[in-house]
Structures are given as structure tokens and as C-alpha cells.
Specification:
The protein is built from ten helices and eleven strands. It is α/β, with parallel strands linked by helices. Helix 1 packs across helix 4.
């Protein structure tokens, strides 16, 4: 079915004649007549008869009016949706991220994006500790603490480094090691450590450093989330590891931070999983451009 035939017929019926419809649609009268003939051929009988300079609808033509009006309404709605999306006056962006990324790396970036594009709805799910617990097709972008965290991504998704941060070691105020000018990794072995959950990218990065130095640290307590690490260390339960970005935003923590191993510390890479460009919505393209990705 060619929707243009039905919409042309509706214009003719509402304007009362072929010449009037031609002016409204900016088409020639022969073009309008040809469209009406094609529609009549599809129906199998005449849909109008000429009456003076106008037309009169046949019963077959009358039966098409309600359908043609619904077709017009749906077409207008479709054009409005397309136009709004092209102008970024509507759209949805669904983002899933780990606790650390959602809490410390995305909020300001999302806020600045929404100031520019206030009509784009952003759905953010943070605190993801196991990607098997979420429905991958329900989300558009994934911010990870490791490059291979998601196993069920569609084949057209790409996982690329997004940004790099530093992992710092935090101590309770007054901890004995803070008296040392330089604290070595092996110095930590005599004290209990606070560990994030096993799926944490921070934990894996720290464990790789210990493994490369053939060190087997003592595990004192395992918690979930950056905030829990800070709370446990502040309470004096042990030594912990957090991202520098988190520490910058948690100035209320009563802890002391050190870069270990000195002087370079531990670098930490965050990753972004996104569809290839041909599969990206306009809203997603604008967001990724805003993020300088």
C-alpha cells in the first residue's frame, strides 16, 4: 500500500476537488488524477465521480475516509517523532555502570550533557557488580572497570579504554606505617587489608601488582563498594585501596592516603562498551561526542 495515494485521496475529499488538492499538495492536476486512478484500481471500483468543478465520493470512497484520516494522523506522528529526534528534542539514553564509575566519574558529565540536551531522557543504573545480573539488551552503553567484564555483548559492540585513574592506598589516621617516609608494598603484609568484592576492577588491579611482586597479602575483610572501604578503613579495621577520584569526592573520610608503590602508584583503566557507529542513535552520538569519546 502506497500511503501517498490514500493521503492524496483524503486531501481531494477534504478540499472538494482535484485542482484544489493539486494546489495544496504542490502537484499537477494530472498527477493527482493518476494517484486517484491507481487507488481506484486497488479498491476495484470508482471512489469518486466528477460533479461540476468538484467531486462526489462514491460509497467505496466514503468507506476509505476514516482509514485515510488514521493514516494521516499516524504519518504526522511519525514525522514529528523523527523531527524531534533529529533535533534532539526527544530520545532515551540507557547507561549501566559499576558503582565507582556511576558514583564518581559520570554524575558531572551527565549533568553537563543534560544542560545542553534537556529533552534527552537518561536512565542510569549504577552499582553493577556482576554483569550477568542485568539484561544486556535493555541498555545502550556500559562503563566497566575491566576490559572483559561482559561476556554477552552483541557482536557489533566495541570495548575500548575510556579513561585512566590512579588507585591510592588509604590508612586509618595514626596508622604506624604513616611514620615511614616511604612505604613499600611488602610493608603492607604485616597488616590487615580491606578488599572490595572480587568483581571490582580496583581489586583486580591491586591483586595484579601484588602477584607481580610475589606477595600474598593478608585478607582481613571483604566489602562491597567504595564507600564501604572508606568506612572500614576510617573505623580502623585495616588498610584499603580506592580510586583517586573517589578520595577527591570523599573529603569527609578521616583517612590518610599514600601512593604505593612509590613513586608511580597503581594506574587503573576504565573501559566503555558501545555499539559501532552505524548502530548508534543520534542521542548516543551526541553523548559520546560530549564525553570526547
Amino acid at each position: 500500500m502506497d500511503t501517498e495515494l490514500l493521503l492524496t485521496f483524503l486531501t481531494v475529499a477534504q478540499s472538494g476537488g482535484i485542482s484544489a488538492a493539486a494546489r495544496i499538495l504542490h502537484r499537477s492536476q494530472p498527477t493527482i488524477t493518476e494517484r486517484l486512478q491507481r487507488l481506484s484500481d486497488m479498491v476495484g471500483e470508482p471512489i469518486y465521480i466528477r460533479s461540476g468543478r468538484g467531486i462526489v465520493l462514491t460509497p467505496a470512497g466514503e468507506s476509505l475516509i476514516s482509514t485515510a484520516r488514521r493514516m494521516r494522523d499516524v504519518t504526522n506522528e511519525f514525522e514529528d517523532v523523527v523531527l524531534r529526534r533529529q533535533r534532539l528534542q526527544s530520545g532515551i539514553l540507557r547507561i549501566a555502570a559499576t558503582n565507582t564509575v556511576a558514583s564518581y566519574f559520570l554524575p558531572q558529565r551527565l549533568a553537563s550533557f543534560q544542560k545542553i540536551y534537556p529533552d534527552i531522557d537518561i536512565h542510569l543504573r549504577g552499582g553493577v557488580t556482576d554483569w550477568k545480573d542485568i539484561s544486556i539488551p535493555d541498555w545502550d552503553l556500559f562503563f566497566l572497570e575491566g576490559g572483559v567484564d561482559i561476556e554477552a555483548l552483541p557482536s557489533y559492540y566495541l570495548i575500548t579504554p575510556w579513561m585512566q585513574d590512579e588507585i591510592v592506598t588509604i590508612f586509618p589516621v595514626g596508622h604506624p606505617l604513616l611514620q615511614k617516609k616511604t612505604i613499600r608494598l611488602e610493608d603492607l603484609m604485616s597488616y590487615p587489608l580491606i578488599w572490595r568484592e572480587r568483581t571490582s576492577g580496583i581489586r583486580r588491579s591491586v591483586e595484579q601488582i601484588f602477584s607481580s611482586e610475589r606477595l600474598a597479602p593478608k585478607q582481613s575483610i571483604e566489602v562491597t563498594g567504595v564507600e564501604a572501604v572508606g568506612t572500614a578503613v576510617e573505623a580502623g579495621l585495616g588498610i584499603g585501596f580506592v580510586t583517586a577520584a573517589a578520595l577527591k569526592h570523599r573529603k569527609e573520610w578521616r583517612v590518610s592516603a599514600r601512593r604505593i608503590p612509590y613513586p608511580d602508584g597503581i594506574k587503573w583503566t576504565l573501559y566503555l562498551a558501545r555499539p559501532q557507529s552505524i548502530y548508534q542513535s543520534i542521542a548516543m552520538q551526541k553523548f559520546l561526542s560530549h564525553m570526547d569519546v
